[in-house]
Amino acid sequence: MKQNIPLTQLIFLLPDTVEKIKPVKKEVQEKITKKTSITFPNSPNKLVESYSSTTGKIFVGFEEETEWIIRKLTSGPTEINVIFIVGMIGIGKTTLAYKVYNDMSVVGHFDIRAWCTVNQDHNEKK
Q1: What secondary structure letter does DSSP report for 99?
Q2: According to the model, what pLDDT value does residue 13 have?
Q3: Cβ neighbourhood burial of 60 (10 Å; 0-12, 13-18, 19+)
């Protein structure tokens, strides 16, 4: 929920937030492990900045899915939730996530937002 919290206070809240995310990360990893066709590699050691070719474009489709995800993110309990967007390559998962991420109700609801791209190259033996 959007609040006027000073940056210095947010910095002190970060370790607690990280601790709250750890069990969520573990649960997500366990759920992904059970699905043989979906794996997420560990985060890269350095931040990678990327730009989407969809910036500034008009999106068509996914209206129901977009509204459902936005409702889940902006209403209900304030605890951390994970929403999976899965499907075959090329069906618009990133486009859907981008629509939600840039929706004005989502932008106005959160103090801080971050966009993370996960590399598709992975080695299941690691």
Answers
A1: H
A2: 75
A3: exposed
| Cut 0.90: pTM above it | no
Which tokens go with 125? 């033996």
Neighbours of 62 (CB within 10 A): 19
| CA 123/CA 126 separation, integer angstroms | 6
Domain boundaries, the chain: 7-39+56-109
pLDDT of residue 42: 44
Q: How far from 123 is each of 7, 32, 38, 41, CA to CA, in Å?
A: 38, 14, 12, 8
Residue carrying the six token digits 């492990």: 33
- b/e for 20-58, b at 16 or more Cβ within 10 A? eeeeeeeeeeeeeeeeeeeeeeeeeeeeeeeeeeeeeee
Tell me how far apart the 2 most distant CA atoms of the chain are, in Å. Answer: 45
